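so i finally got all the pieces together for this one. its two components total, 404 residues if u count the protein bits. some of the lines might not be protein, just check the labels. i wanna see the whole assembly predicted at once instead of chain by chain like last time, that was a mess tbh
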Amino acid sequence: MVVVSTTSGARTRMSPERRREQLLDLGVRLFASRTLDEISIDLLAQEAGISRGLLYHYFGDKMAFREAVVRRAAADLVAQTEPPAEGDEIAKLLHSVAAYVDFVDANYEGYLSLVRGAASDPALRALYDEAFRTLGERFFDIGVQVVPDTAAARLLVRGWQAMTEELVLAWKAEETGLDRDQLLDLLVASLPALLTALPEQG
Amino acid sequence: MVVVSTTSGARTRMSPERRREQLLDLGVRLFASRTLDEISIDLLAQEAGISRGLLYHYFGDKMAFREAVVRRAAADLVAQTEPPAEGDEIAKLLHSVAAYVDFVDANYEGYLSLVRGAASDPALRALYDEAFRTLGERFFDIGVQVVPDTAAARLLVRGWQAMTEELVLAWKAEETGLDRDQLLDLLVASLPALLTALPEQG
């Protein structure tokens, strides 16, 4: 059980914003090994050792809490996969892809349920789509500029992202005979390889 | 309104199996422009001009009817994308990919709702996964043998399928600046391109 309090136990001195952040931290930690359906106010109350009433006070209803967890998890994913400022383009790509693979690896249950839940829940889908778009934009705006900015290239990057997600989820779920480094090599090599399929003028 | 009957109007002479098939044909035609949620026994009764009771008799409950429609649509997809016996490997691939693009194009609403519905409904997911696997197996069993049969290649083909699906759905939903032939060129060129990313020994 994780008790939400300062180390001195002085709960009442923590600001509401800070306490809400701590509770959200806990929600996101649950996301690592639970599906979104399993992440409820009840579970959080149990894990945090505080009342359900207080949680409703911080988050509103059950769906609002779930959305807050997904919003934070998506922000974590975007932050963790940020390519480094230094290094060549392939090194940046490798860093970013490795961080993505490790995020999915560490948050498999939650991530898988997000991919599935996002498909049918419009609010979760919007959060998922936004993160997907943000990750894709990196190839054109900053950091990893291995891709020409054309309509065909944008479509191809989007496809590569869908491919990457499928491959990482399959790699986690099944015996594929590939270790993490082999998976990374395949993913990183696949983007420049795909670009060779682009027409001369996109 | 489509009346389910023979051209002579001799409804009673049609076998139950034949009538069920005709009703299913109608359900699959509805799949072209309706989501799975919209394809109900009520809608079919209205479109076919027959009683709901008779439809329940043929299909059981609402979910069983929806599953029957998806099973048939998936079988249609598999049949239509069957590569021709003759021709080189790229020609077979083009034929198969073109048939896939045209199927999604013609059945966009139903297909999109399947992709989304399949994510959360285990029965639909099983049907979707089976069709996805069947299409993928083609690259190794028969027809389009451009791919070496290794663990990495199997993973890559699966990723290419996810990419293809994402690209076709994006192409249908948004202004991408690509016409059908350009999309096909991109998809067909992307598989051999991806194969160059495979390690020497998969």
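Residues 11-64 of chain A form a domain with the Arc Repressor Mutant, subunit A fold (CATH 1.10.10).
Residues 29 and 107 of chain A are 8 Å apart (CA to CA).
anyway lmk what u think
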